Amino acid sequence: MMSDTIDVLTTCLCGRSNFTTTIPHSSLPMPGHFCHCTSCRRIHGALSAFHAPWSAPPSSAIEKLAKYKSSERVTQYFCPTCGAHMLDSSPLEGSLEHNWTIATPLVQGAENIFEYKEHIYIEDTKDGGTSDFVRSYNGTPLLRWAGRDGESEQLPPYWDTTKDLRARPEAHDPSGKVKCLCHCGGIEFYLHRPNIKVSPEADFGLPDKWFDVATNRYIVEACGCDSCRLDSGADIMPWIFVPPSRFSLPDGSPLPEDRMFGTMKHYRSSENVSRNFCGWCGATVFYMNDERTEWDLAVGLIDAESGARAEEWLEWNTVVVSYAKLAYNKKMLEAWQHGYKAWEERKHHKGIVSDYE
């Protein structure tokens, strides 16, 4: 006879932090959502968090996790070894109980456990963020909320910006820079323009695909591999690839050669790979492969004036998701790929108009 419940494992990248939750079959699929608030973006390093309501984890699991107060009411829980953000909680009004939210990509069998229903806190992105990429899930359109679900304005299918950010004068200034920071501010630095007009080979030493010569912008590559998923708590993780010479500390000095500064910690996820994160708030910051000269920067840390997609700085590669064959949640991959390409086609079809010409 089939059991009325299933036991579901939640685990981080290193495996140190894990716990099992018993779920009634009758509750499946559970409703999931994309959270676009600035806190989630700065903590996960992705453009949004992949979340769902969850039951309280066992106290033995909580004891293994690092805690960070991201606001007066919300506490974040992440693995102190690899930095994977697993849970957050907030007190239930008028009760000693808490509301719990889980990072759905860390849940085993997530594809069959969660059915994503909505985007929340889109207004924090200023440009729509990934809500413009993933507009439906498993064939069902997603609701779009400016803030909290059910308590804020419901938004139309697209954020619908009409500005060509590539035409901004600063987009062609080789001395330009933009601040990058984690949620707590313990890690803060600047990203500089590629400066390819000076000497693209000497300055970069990278294949052409990592930057757009015509617009002087970094190319975003979204990754669907298991390691990025379990490290960031995001099913699809966007990165850009940057040589160390294009970073600086707030005082103008270069980043240290050992790659450690501020509240930085690192986890060796394989023989040649370090994944760097903030030891205080757990923010995903860098992926570093010893066999490559460039550092991979988590896009969610870029504090661009235009918004989360930072389009005056970034060229979004909508052609491919890296390691797509390794994607754990195939439904999410399909939703992302379809919406990603549709977003790009819509931009070209509309003929984006510049306000800066």
Q: Can you walk through the features of this model?
A:
The strands form 5 sheets. An 8-stranded mixed sheet has the order 5-6-7-8-4-3-9-12. The chain has 6 helices and 23 strands. A hairpin with a 5-residue loop joins strand 21 and strand 22. It is 13% helix and 32% strand. The chain has helices spanning 38-44, 59-62, 110-113, 200-204, 226-232, 330-350; strands at residues 5-11, 18-24, 30-35, 49-54, 66-69, 75-78, 85-91, 98-103, 114-120, 136-137, 140-141, 143-144, 177-181, 188-192, 211-212, 217-223, 237-242, 247-248, 264-270, 273-278, 284-289, 295-298, 314-316. With 357 residues, it is α+β, with helices and mostly antiparallel strands. It is globular, with a radius of gyration of 20 Å. It has 2 domains: 5-144, glutathione-dependent formaldehyde- activating enzyme (gfa); 165-350, Beta Complex (Metal Binding Protein, Guanine Nucleotide Exchange Factor, Chain A).
How are the strands of the largest sheet arranged?
Answer: 5-6-7-8-4-3-9-12
Largest sheet: number of strands, sense, barrel closure: 8 strands, mixed
Helix content: 10-25%
CATH fold topology of the largest domain: Metal Binding Protein, Guanine Nucleotide Exchange Factor, Chain A
Helix count from the secondary structure assignment: 6
Number of domains: 2
Bulk shape: globular
Rounded radius of gyration (Å): 20 Å
The low-confidence parts are: 198-207, 351-357
SS content category: alpha+beta
The fraction of residues in strands falls at 25-35%
Number of strands: 23
* CATH architecture type of the largest domain: Beta Complex
Mean pLDDT comes to 88
Please give the CATH class of the largest domain.
Mainly Beta
End-to-end CA span: 70 Å
